[in-house]
């Protein structure tokens, strides 16, 4: 049964929830909904934040051993420092950390490193990427 009441895609088909507008879901764990115009806010657990901090610190050490130009090293050091600083806050903004780690990955790729090469040399990048929802 499908109802038309002035709003597109609103009705009861006998399963799930159909909504005609934007849907906002807050503070959940795991994937709750898929589709367009759906935003989910997930609060990471304290364990996830601690794992993220550790992986960022480990990644910082691993990146210092890479053979990169001084310009690329400076860019990566800046992004790494900002990501670590954000992770150390009482309520870190994961999107800011994610953006910094994505910048690091892009800088490494621009320097000629492949995804396979990056993940082999920097094992911690896999952990950080997984925790931040970044696909390598």
Report on this model:
By secondary structure, the chain is mainly alpha-helical. The protein has a domain at 44-130. The chain is built from 5 helices and 2 strands, in the order E-E-H-H-H-H-H. It has helices at residues 46-64, 70-87, 94-110, 115-121, 123-132, and strands at residues 23-25, 38-40. Strands 1-2 form a two-stranded parallel ribbon. Helix 4 (115-121) crosses helix 5 (123-132). The termini are far apart. 18% of the residues are buried. Mean pLDDT is 78; it is low at 1-5.
Low-confidence stretches: 1-5
Estimate the helix proportion, in percent.
40-55%
Total count of helical runs of at least 4 residues = 5
Instruction: Give the mean pLDDT.
Output: 78
By oligomeric state, this entry counts as single chain
Q: Report on the biggest sheet.
A: 2 strands, parallel
Number of beta-strand segments: 2
Bulk shape: globular
Rg from Cα: 20 Å
Structural class computed from helices and strand pairing: mainly alpha
The run of helices and strands is: EEHHHHH
Proportion of strand residues: under 5%
Structure summary:
The chain has a domain of 87 residues. Helices cover 52% and strands 4% of the residues. The chain is built from five helices and two strands.
Per-chain topology:
Blueprint: E1 23-25, E2 38-40, H1 46-64, H2 70-87, H3 94-110, H4 115-121, H5 123-132
Parallel strand pairs: 1-2
Helix pairs in contact: 1-2, 1-5, 2-3, 3-5, 4-5
